[in-house]
Amino acid sequence: MANGARPAEKREHPELAAANDHPLLPLVARQLRFGINGRRIIRNISFWIGSSGRTIILGPNGAGKTVLLRLCHGLIQPTSGQLSWGDLSVAEARAHQAMVPQRPVLLRRSVAGNVQHVLSVKRIPRKQRPELVAAALEQAGLTDLASRPARTLSGGQQQRLAIARACVLRPAVLLLDEPTTNLDPAAVRDVEEMILAVGAAGTKILMTTHDIAQARRLASDVMFLNDRRLLEHASAAEFFSSPKDPVAARFLDGELLG
Amino acid sequence: MNEFSSAIGAALSMIVTLDPGLVEIVLLSLRISLSAVIIASVFALPLGALIALQPFPGRRGVIVLLNALMGLPPVVVGLMVYLLLSRAGPLGPLGLLFTPTAMVIAQSIIVFPIIAALSRQTIADLHEEYDEHLRSIGCTPLQSVVTLIRDGRYRLLTGIMAGFGRAIAEVGAVLIVGGNIQHSTRVMTTTIALETSKGNLALALGLGLILVVLALGVNGTALVISDAAQRRYG
Hints:
The complex is a heterodimer of chains A (258) and B (234).
Chain A: H1 6-12, E1 27-36, E2 39-49, E3 54-58, H2 65-73, E4 80-85, E5 88-89, H3 90-93, E6 97-100, H4 111-121, H5 129-140, H6 155-167, E7 173-177, H7 185-200, E8 204-209, H8 212-218, E9 221-226, E10 229-235, H9 236-241, H10 246-252
Parallel strand pairs in A: 3-8, 3-9, 6-7, 7-8
Antiparallel strand pairs in A: 1-2, 1-4, 4-5, 9-10
Chain B: H1 2-16, H2 20-53, H3 59-69, H4 74-85, H5 100-136, H6 141-151, H7 153-169, H8 172-178, H9 188-198, H10 201-233
Helix pairs in contact in B: 1-10, 2-5, 2-7, 3-5, 4-5, 4-8, 5-6, 5-7, 5-8, 7-10, 9-10
């Protein structure tokens, strides 16, 4: 929504109201476009995210979810339009965020070494590091595997390590791109529990998924993307019970959008 | 055939009894080639990393050139260094021709492109994989380089060992700039070349055996290291 639409939006969706204590909110996008080599991947998207809960970007593959997330993290620059996190630009906000891509890059080091690396990059004093590493591994349930090479972990363990590594310094925002693709149900449950715990500790969650059931389990609000457009943004309760957009309704009914 | 087998016997006994002449030659070979590899690495590793990470106009051309220079013929390098160091040459007054230093210079030039090209490839591959993560967590350029070198250390070591394998086995350059002077610039390869033509098969064979074992050993170790690192770190 453009700035002018904000109050109405707030009245309509009290759960989207700004959490005043969150430094990076609201996340505001105005007429965001992204294209590469003349191919448009994001078409004129505007939105306003004020709640500090879990925002799920839902949509079929190819909808533009990953690109939108990467734009929000500043890994790629929009072709046109504006994005801002609270009072900060995307580039400034990145220091307070962490992102876990669909296929996280684990360094060729031990499990603990992967967490330590972030701490040394962020110049955390050496003395404080062991405690932070231990807490992160504990949270991921990987304490016993601390000295194992990270790349020999199972898919679920790798994903948990990636999330723990991303959250070791309690970022204000955690961006997750399809974090449970290719995981079995038990691993999905573990990862979702971690995400809920991270969110409960005060981190804003912005996550993409194409899995409707997962969106139902996790979302406090849903942004529905299809064919490179944002078709609906509503609270989870509203979106799942009575989606306003006809395409979203068809998607929720299990139709395969292409 | 009889002569041949007696030469092998003599060669083996030289190795077993650590014949002083043979040991001197082997040690000089190792000293020269190790020095050349260390000196080349000091410049080639940062250059490889720089080319891998820093885009600049003409980078593709430099990469092609570097890869092509890996096949630089040692005799030609020897000739160039000879011309530079010969009495009439620009560096003639230093009096380095026919010294071990001249041999180190020639071998450094031969292995430099090998180490630079292989380390560029290693760092570039790793960078492509790590870049987004490193940007996401806010790495400075220096922190990125340190991370890439650390995580690529086994593959970088393999490149350095490839350079060493090339240096220890080449004969053309060290023969031209060293001159195969006894007790001064005789290394394994030049000795083999000259003793064979003189008919002294025992020494040539003994050194040949050691050289083969060294070359196989270096390559084998490089393989084992990269294989173990691959299994351990993925």
